């Protein structure tokens, strides 16, 4: 089954996940659409914490169409300087350690340790992994990093609930759009 073909069969007005090409294009061009829920939830968390994104150096580790790319675009729209990193990025820890805002969406349990985090950084952990004992954990080694940060999201209980909240927000927005 071709995932893109299936996804893009959904009307963009009903695409509450924000995954269709039409909604991705709207995000890319700064137009109003239904935005991918996890990145939108991350932005809401950052802004709710009182962080002014404007002018900040942001590093997004991960380049998926579901989280990494939309997250980078949302940060750009808020006037951050954004670097996208991935599995082939050279000197990843050095690059990440320069970030005022660090978003980890790589799918590797506790990969992000203190050497990746700038003192006082905002750290958003999108990862959902299992550690060697089968316990749910994020991409960030929370215990090793938390004291260096000004704000950090836990796993579980951080980004996940915000993703669900933004899914409901998108559902309401889609309903209101379709009712017009």
What does this structure look like?
There is one protein chain. The protein has 180 residues and is an alpha/beta fold. It folds into two domains: 1-34, no CATH class; 38-172, NAD(P)-binding Rossmann-like Domain (Rossmann fold, 3-Layer(aba) Sandwich), CATH 3.40.50. Helix content is 37%, strand content 15%. The protein is built from seven helices and seven strands. A five-stranded parallel beta sheet has the order 2-1-3-4-7. The chain has a two-stranded antiparallel sheet with strand order 5-6. Helix 4 (68-77) links the parallel strand 1 and strand 2. Helix 3 (37-48) crosses helix 4 and helix 3 (37-48) crosses helix 7 (159-179). The mean pLDDT is 97.
Radius of gyration: 16 Å
CATH architecture of the largest domain: 3-Layer(aba) Sandwich
CATH class of the largest domain: Alpha Beta
Low-confidence stretches: none
Largest pleated sheet? 5 strands, parallel
* Helical proportion, percent range: 25-40%
| Helix and strand pattern | HHHEHEHEEEEHEH
User: What fraction strand?
Assistant: 15-25%
Quaternary state reads: single chain
Identify the strand order in the major beta sheet.
2-1-3-4-7
Q: Can you say what the CATH homologous superfamily of the largest domain is?
A: NAD(P)-binding Rossmann-like Domain
């Amino acid at each position: 089954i071709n995932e893109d073909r299936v996804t893009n069969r959904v009307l963009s007005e009903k695409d509450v996940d924000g995954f269709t090409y039409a909604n991705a294009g709207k995000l890319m061009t700064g137009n109003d659409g239904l935005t991918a829920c996890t990145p939108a939830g991350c932005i809401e968390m950052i802004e709710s914490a009182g962080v002014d994104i404007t002018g900040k150096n942001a590093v997004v580790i991960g380049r998926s169409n579901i989280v990494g790319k939309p997250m980078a675009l949302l940060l750009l729209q808020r006037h951050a300087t954004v670097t996208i990193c991935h599995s082939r990025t050279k000197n990843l820890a050095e690059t990440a350690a320069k970030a005022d805002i660090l978003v980890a969406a790589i799918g590797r349990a506790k990969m992000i340790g203190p050497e990746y985090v700038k003192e006082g950084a905002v750290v958003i952990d999108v990862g959902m992994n299992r550690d060697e004992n089968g316990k749910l954990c994020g991409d960030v080694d929370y215990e090793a990093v938390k004291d260096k940060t000004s704000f950090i999201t836990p796993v579980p209980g951080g980004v996940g609930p915000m993703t669900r909240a933004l899914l409901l927000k998108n559902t309401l927005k889609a309903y209101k759009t379709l009712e017009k």
